[in-house]
Amino acid sequence: MNSHSKIKLALHLILPALIAFAVSFQTASAVTVKQTAMTVQTKIEHNFAKHDLLKNNDIHAVLYGHIVTLQGTVGTLAEKNQAEHEVSKAAKGYLIQNNLTVRNSDLTDSQLAGRVTNRLNKYLFYGVFDWVTPSADNGVVTLRGWAHERWLKGAFARQVAQVPGVTQVNNQIEVLPVSIFDNEIRHRAMRLIYDNPLYEMYAYDAFEPVHIIVNGGDVTLYGDVASTSEKGWAATLIKFGTNAMNIDNRLKVL
After folding, report:
1. pTM of the full structure
2. Do 23 and 97 fall into the same domain?
3. Distance separating alpha carbons of residues 223 and 66, to the nearest angstrom
4. Which of 72, 96, 127, 165 could form a disulfide with 105 if both were Cys (CB 3.0 to 4.6 A apart)?
5. Is 210 exposed, middle or buried (0-12, 13-18, 19+ CB in 10 A)?
6. What is the pLDDT of residues 143-182, one digit of tens each?
């Protein structure tokens, strides 16, 4: 038998084995991919259930290749964002397409803005040195104003996302610069106002009515007071009791 015949015979013997191995490897790979997908799906559903995201919501996670698509409806924007976060923890390395829809509410724009304001007022870390005014347009809420700490800007937006009917948050809140000079003015101004007998009834109010915004030595007063004397005296106290450069009194008399 010449060398050519020997090679041909060897190929006839080896080729079936190679084909069988390839088929076996492909089948095993397909099974592994399927098992991996099932594991990821189970983890996603576990995370949803753990955080009560399936309660009163209609959420479906569809896996295709290395893409997870979220479909269905949820009650709040916060739940939509939370669902995506839980998928990212369960499906590391997967691309996530969040197509969840936030259910519409029957609220008017002004009613929705009012609920957002109430939510912020009840937030523990929304205080005297912050001022945020929300506006709503068909579910999209825009936040404008000031936060005296950088982390508060995102925290305020997350609070708003929990309000039913809010489908998107446009966060235009400005973060006030870090300044020892400004900090001294704002704390001194707060004591002057809230320790004054004229405003003692506000000291026990759940929501601080007078907000003090200090930026570069300039003070702006926001909020609501009961009389014109309260409005005028607040500015006078700050003018003569602090090192404020300018005072813009935007307090409203109820």
Report:
1. 0.81
2. yes
3. 51
4. 165
5. buried
6. 999 999 999 999 999 999 999 999 999 999 999 999 999 9
